[in-house]
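Sanity check. The docking grid for zinc ion depends on where the pocket ends up, so I'm generating a full predicted complex first rather than guessing from homology. Inputs follow.
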Amino acid sequence: MLADLHVHGMAHGEFNHSKEAIRPFIEYAESRGLEVLGFAEHDWFLEEIKFELIRSLQVETPVSLRVGLEVDHRPGLDCAGLTKEYPFDYLIGSVHEIDGFLFDHPDYIEVYEQWDSDLLYAAYFERLEDLIESDCYDIVGHFDLIKVFGCRPKKSILPAVTDLLQLIKQKHLVVEVNTSGRYKPAGEKYPSDDILLLCRSLDIPITLGSDAHMPRHVGRDLADQVEALTRMGFREIVTFKGRKPEFHSL
Ligand SMILES: [Zn+2]
Ligand SMILES: [Zn+2]
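Predicted complex below; grid placement will be based on this.
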């Protein structure tokens, strides 16, 4: 079963929610055999999201369309205020920033030199813990994004990761398998296989996302991931409708 819940139909503002712009994303989803396609725009485009327009395209396609949101989690964020007026199917919580350091943005790459890698990972995990504790989200986006530009920890992160995953389990959150990392200097998906194996052993549910910012990246590598995840022992993936989880056999 193929689903892609992490698609940016507006990219970083290059497109908008018009039928002409959205249709190519849906066409790619169809050509890749997706059953569920979820648009999850960045929250800074909140007011430009056109729920009705996307829902009106449902009659044109067998792919089940969903509308989510990828929220840039910041400590103290008022997520209830952010979303109560909007009928989202799901919210992805993502950490992209450590005190003004936009660590996944190429313009900030030199800032890595100012950090000890272990301290950077610890700071990232602290923000991730705040995200998990916030009770705002359904999905934890790209769990180990801090590796995006190839910064690797010196000591094992698995003890800290295990603590975070236990918290994710307690909070009934879903971990996203995000294939975009393969096309970044990190060279592999988020999260890495050792973290996914921990998810499996803790029985944490997973979902799938390409993080596409253009139509031809919709569903990228997800069929391969389904095979790999099956080999790891996963049996199902989760999608969301109206903030309620739906479980599908892989
Ligand atoms: Zn993100
Ligand atoms: Zn994204």
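Relevant for the grid: The CA atoms of residues 118 and 153 lie 5 Å apart.
Also worth noting: The longest helix spans residues 117-133.
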